[in-house]
Prior knowledge:
A: Alpha-Beta Plaits; five-stranded parallel beta sheet; four-stranded parallel beta sheet; B: four-stranded parallel beta sheet
Amino acid sequence: MDVGRHPKINLLAYSEVEDISGYIGNFKVKVRKKARYVDEVECTSCDDCVDVCPVVVPKEHQLGLASRKAIYIPFPQAVPASYIIDEENCLGFNPIACGKCAEKCDKNCIDYDAKDEIVEFDVGSIIVASGLDVYDPTEFDEYGYTRFENVLTSMELEILTGPGGVTKGKLIRPTDRKVPKSIGFIQCVGSRCESRGTAYCSNICCMNTIKDTLLLREYYHDIDCKVFYMDIRAFGKGFEDFYRRSKALGVEYIRGIPGDIREDPKTKNLILSVENTTGNGIEEYELDMVVLSVGMVPRKDSNSINKLLTLQTTSDGLLMEVHPKLTPIDAPTAGVFFAGCCEAPKDIKDSVTQASGAAARAASILSKDKVKIPALTATVDDDLCKSCGICVKVCPYSAITIDMKAKEPAKIIEAACKGCGTCASECKFDAISMKHYNDAQIIAQIDAILEENPEEKVLVFACNWCSYPGADLVGISRMQYPTSSRIIRIMCTGRLDEKFILHALKLGAPIVLMSGCHPADCHYINASLKAQLRIEKLWNKLERKGIRPERVQFEWISASEVGKFVKTMEELEEFRKSVTKKEIEETKKILSKSKK
Amino acid sequence: MSENVRIGVFVCECGTNIASTIDCDKLVEYAKSLPDVVFSIKNRYTCAEPGQQEIQKFIKEENLNRVVIASCTPKMHEPTFRNCVIDVGFNPYLVEMANIREHCSWVHHNEKSAANVKARDLVNSAVSRARFLEPQKELEVPVTHSALVIGGGIAGIQSALDLAESGFDVHLVEKEASIGGIMAQLNKTYPTID
């Protein structure tokens, strides 16, 4: 394939991204290239090693519907077209037990002692195309996927009818190896379901089933095909025609999802009961074979990449874009883009389209010689700095250096500072200031908001990456919530100095909310956790002073959690009503008495 | 502050998106009443070309040194307005936005009176912040002209090829032993049968 040959593409297959640091235009990447135990360059794919390998295991590429050896090529068209040794099953790692393939290989390509390699390189932009997984329908026990051999998934049907399969593309029924006379497709297995699988529509399954029925009717004219569905979604170009063709070929579409499948123990036929919602109630069908049309679910292993790039997901586990309509390819992390199913389930055409879009977006950065970094960094006032070193300790990016012995003031490494503001919040001497989010600016906003009738307002500090755009998405979705909230944007909850909160309480704020990214999503590594610790300390302080700590709240609200945002605002408004004018006046008195 | 702060407040109606909930004429009057605000005007669409030209024009005519735009979320149009003022030699960090759409008109359209009070507070907050804004210089950093593509399924392959064909070096990382992803397991695909 073109990728393997392209001089500009460095293909790192059987590899995993271990670490990513840096920023737009300048990411540093560390990849673990796992040992294949076979020299990719020298290997001529002669197959001698496979012939002598004594180990036979199920072949993953064929979903276990075929077998392979412990040394193998994943599938005939694989790129790179090189063998790989499956560590788990190969006996050769014990030199006494086996070594047949190494002995047989004329070119000495096999090395059982090969080690994983760490590859490091710099890039200017990153495209995440990590995909989705096929849903495993085991939990739909009523369909007997694990109990009845003649119940397959749509993916297994694909393998069984594919030319690389054990039957060389001939459809057979697993129990008697005969071509089935009737076959039923059950749609939406694991999709559009609140309790199992996913709540979203997986997009591709209706069309995939329609394709399967056309294929079956054209190859095996007398096979009886039935499709059990709730809605047929054939919305793309050429899709409706495709659906019509299937119906014209005699495929029967029955509107209703079967409640269960039973097996006739003698014939191994499957009996489905279904409420036909366009017919006369409960109907029963006896079929030779049933295909569960399974959807797509988030990959279990996608978390590590999401974490490295501080990407957030929707409650469904799909990656969050900057804007659902206007910037659907951009990740909130600058310089990172999405392609394919990781953003949402897609068919091939849409995946390819988005992938080209992502490439164009990435190219818009890569074609420049320089990019500008927002001026949000920290600055140190040398006169106020006491060289205590606390800023160095709390900085998530090691962007501050200090010579404590020489009592030299702290220094900010501007290219490394991301502007979270944690150092400014933690500095006891107010020696650190944030460009564009300085104390005077934030205090001025608090003053303005609480100028009139402060007791009626819920003051919210929301971080730029999660809670602020979360509140935006509530607006875009036109959800309604109480009018009492007033949001102040900060880059990170790490910026939230307790003095801002105390200042607000002193001005008569009944309640202050700090809202930011869930710690796992924090765009500044662990700055939101540091903010949480500060709030917890503040609670103790307030309690000692005789102020109800509940008047300062914090909530992690991601950019996708619109429901949580609205609920939080409703709860805070209820709570606000419980804070009496008397209580507010007392707080003001307490806080004006104490020095700090 | 050594200089004389001169703030201009540009209120956007966003068609009816803001104007159907917020009385923009009154909001303009309110803005004018705030200290250091020397100019305020409303526009049907501030982000549109005429709206942006209006900002540029009044920066010059009114000798503004701070600009507040009361419109949508800064996540959407902050870059637009920053670029708009750069064209007239104005530092982009002297622009502040009041989010009276996503955080106000769209979420409180059933409570107009309270929404108008909130819009005033948001404008006051932005103006108060604007008073303390300082010009900033952005750090320029060089770009590494290569890309990382994570995942060698059909999407990753297409992205990698497009970038490579555009002349950029691409590192394509795939977890499995071969690229191809799920598509490599498919026999035939719709909406044709191949």
